Amino acid sequence: MRSFLSIDTDKLPYKEYDAIVVGSGAAGLFCATKLSSIGLKVCVLTKDAADVGSTKLAQGGIAVALPKEDSPDLHFNDTLKAGAGLVKTKMARILTEEGVKRVIDLIRMGANFETDERGLLRFTKEAAHSVARIVYYRDKTGEEVERALLDSYRGDIVEFAKVKELIVKDNRCYGVIYEKNGELKALYAPVTAIATGGAAGIYLKNTNPPTSTGDGIAIALRYGAKLQDLEFIQFHPTAFCDDSECFLISEAVRGEGAIIVDEQGRRFMGDYHHLWELAPRDVVTRAIESQKKICGGNVYLDFRPIEEKGIDIFKRFPTITSKLLERGLNPKKDLIPITPVAHYYIGGIAVDSFGRSSIEGLFAVGEASCTGVHGANRLASNSLLECIVFGERTAYGMYRDFRYLKQNFSPVGVELRKKVSFTNKSYSLNEVKRIMWENVGIVRSAESLTKAIDKLSEIANSNSDWQVRNSAVLGLAIAISAMRREESRGGHYRSDFPYEREEFRKHSTFTLNDLERLI
């Protein structure tokens, strides 16, 4: 199970670096930029073009305690409330206190954010925030952050590189094996960071790019890294889906005043939570699904209250409104049908406050990692903040460890374990996505999870494409973790255990041993 390949790494063409970062989103690039700025020879590997990924699609903004009525303490408290009792307080303190400095770093790197006529930052509000503290750039904040980071990075980038395996010996990581243009190559370095993004893309309906299939997390699991909180997936309540795609309608739309109505035009969120449309995402998601069943029809987002406040939605949300207009919907006049979809992966590779995993020399950062800062349910717009705060800290951790790991570092003599035998049957990635959506989705049960575990075990043991099997391995780990958590908390909802239970108020872990017991 560790390796999907059967090769000796010393027979591959290779290069050596001081540090390798797998992933070119905000977390990976912020980390790589810091490492290269202090003189390390860094290589970033990315599955697609360097600017393709979840960061570029991020619409809303970055939560940061910069308004005069705000404070890191207030931001910390909001983060704890949203996290449903599982936020690691140390990590949340780091996030909210260091976040102010990191956003200023982004501005110094050239990132643009909206300002008023005096040149001061504008702030918007999103769900579960007690004050407006989101800095943003139109409705494409992530695209602007990505641009600024790519402009600032001075190291090497290898695009269209599919990382297939880690090179691990005696619980120490020596680098990665990747494929480009059909050829396998190796990169060696004393320190390697996984920044491959999340895993919401293994669900049939999602807002992620095609690259977000959890590869980095699955590969780390296969080589023995400890994972954490795998059962927690955040489903975003407001996406527009048609036959071609699902795309996000940012929570900032509701923050500016849009309301959610049912088939009869009734605003119903007050029936479910006192914060109405700005309730935590898991609450809004389940409320929408419940209301669909009650009314027997669609649920809609009404943009018109934003216009009534004097805000031009075409200027404030140009990306969202243009996509809707392309589909024949005018949000100035029409109600927009919405549906919840998989959006953000809270679980991931367990790390300390400097990004270290349980494998020496292997780090993780961003959505691929699990710092515990989101608990069971992420506070809106804390994700980009986590990328830059822990991108900085992971760079520091990598530099500290590089200084002693390089002293006895050698790429010679490290080889992959031979792959085990698999069945000849082959599956598609879409089959994994359908299993996850139907059985490990918004509402779960022992019955649905058992179905998922049985089906995903077959795919993980099949002769399918490496990405399909990686997705199945991670999906299987998610389903097992969800089966073990016999309660409902945050992004994890069990119809057979619909309430929080105090005995489960703890972080879950998952390792290769857990997987090998089953397959």
Form type: globular
The N- and C-terminal alpha carbons lie at a distance of 9 Å
**Which residues sit in consecutive blocks of at least 5 with pLDDT less than 50?**
none
Q: How many helical elements?
A: 16
Helix/strand class: alpha/beta
Portion in strands: 15-25%
What portion of residues is helical? 25-40%
Main sheet summary: 5 strands, parallel
Secondary structure layout plus pairing:
Elements lengths: L13 E3 L2 E4 L3 H12 L4 E4 L8 H4 L4 E2 L8 H11 L6 H20 L25 E2 L5 H12 L3 E3 L3 E8 L2 E9 L2 E6 L2 E4 L20 H8 L4 E2 L4 E9 L4 E3 L2 H5 L3 E3 L19 H15 L3 E4 L1 H5 L4 H4 L1 H9 L9 E10 L2 E3 L11 E3 L4 E2 L11 H24 L23 H11 L6 H15 L5 H19 L24 E2 L1 H5 L3
Parallel strand pairs: 1-9, 2-3, 2-10, 3-6, 10-18, 17-19
Antiparallel strand pairs: 4-5, 7-8, 8-9, 11-17, 11-20, 12-13, 12-16, 14-15, 15-16
Could you characterize what this model shows?
The protein is of the alpha/beta class. The protein has 16 helices and 20 strands. The strands form five sheets. A five-stranded parallel beta sheet has the order 6-3-2-10-18, with helices on both faces. Helix 1 (26-37) runs parallel beside helix 5 and helix 13 (429-439) runs antiparallel to helix 14 (446-460). The mean pLDDT is 93.
